[in-house]
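Issue 218. Parser rejects a valid record. Input:
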Amino acid sequence: ILEIGLGAGHNLAYYNPEHVETVVGIDPCKESRRLAEPRVQAVPFAVECKVGSAEALPEEDGSFDTVLMTYSLCTIPDPRAAVSEARRVLKPGGRLIFCEHGEAPDPDVARWQQRVNPYWRRLLGGCNLNRPICDLIAGGGFALGKVEQMYLPGTPRIAGYNVWGAATPT
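Output the parser choked on:
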C-alpha cells in the first residue's frame, strides 16, 4: 500500500494487518517521520516512511496494489499530477482509495468557497476548499466506483463537504 500524505501516521491503526504486508508512506514534510514514529512502532506490519512529492513519486511503475489518499489532495500543489502519479504506480487491477474534502455541489456554498479560498489557503498551510475531487480523480485516468458524499455534521458547510470512495485505473 502506498499512502500519499502519511503525515503523523493517523491512518496506520485502521489498516487490517491480515491484509497488509507493507505500507509506504510519502510526505513532503521531513518532520512527519518523527511524528509518525509512535504509530509506526504500534502496528504489526512494515512501514516505510519517505520524504517526497506526490507529483513525482519515487516509486516504480505498477508497484502497489493500493494507493490511499486522505485529506491530501487539498494541499498538494498540483493535484492532477498527483492523481496521475497514483495511477502510474498502481498495479493492473489496483485501487485508489480516497477520502477528501472539496468543492461543494450547492452553488451558493461553492461560491463562498471560491471567495474564501485565497485567504483559507494562506492561513491553513496551502489547504484548498474548492477542489473538484471526483473530477480530479476521473481526469487522472480513473473510473470511480462507489462514491459517498456529504457535509460533515458540525462543520461549516464551506469546509465540510467530503467525498470518499474507491477508483480503478481506466
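Fixed in the parser; the record now loads. The radius of gyration is 16 Å.
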